[in-house]
Amino acid sequence: MTLRIERVTDASTVLRGAHLFDEAVDAAATSRFLASPTHHLLFAYDDEVADPMHPVGMISGAELTHPDKGTEMFLNELGVDEVAQRRGIGGALVRELAALAQSRGCTAMWVGTEPDNVAALATYRSTGPVSSEPFVAFTWEF
């Protein structure tokens, strides 16, 4: 495997990886996301699986700062193209975001996922988190 991970800085690159997101990519949200220095989007490329310009994985994170916790990295979303799954790409993306978080002075990185999401649980566990705690999530939609 020839894996390359790059930070995404322009909207046209995001569009090339639109298939990796849960929902349709929104132009205004993309611009706002990319404009923030505390938002991070990384794409993975694997020349053995796809065209070198076609991303096969993505991870997004956002730095969250709080008065009593300092700055932590929230791993917002991880996605790997079906043709590239089970090749270690998800784990490589998580480790790359963790390294970025450390380099930016974050004190921790965290993520939430569904308890029945076997692939996500395996990926996150394989990257060496310190703890895994059950929690309840509430969502307000506006």
From TrEMBL:
Pfam families for this protein: Acetyltransf_1 (PF00583)
Residues spanning the signal sequence: none
UniProt name for this protein: GNAT family N-acetyltransferase
PANTHER family: AMINOALKYLPHOSPHONATE N-ACETYLTRANSFERASE-RELATED-RELATED (PTHR43877)
Transmembrane segments: none
Keywords: Acyltransferase, Transferase
The organism's place on the tree of life at top rank: Bacteria
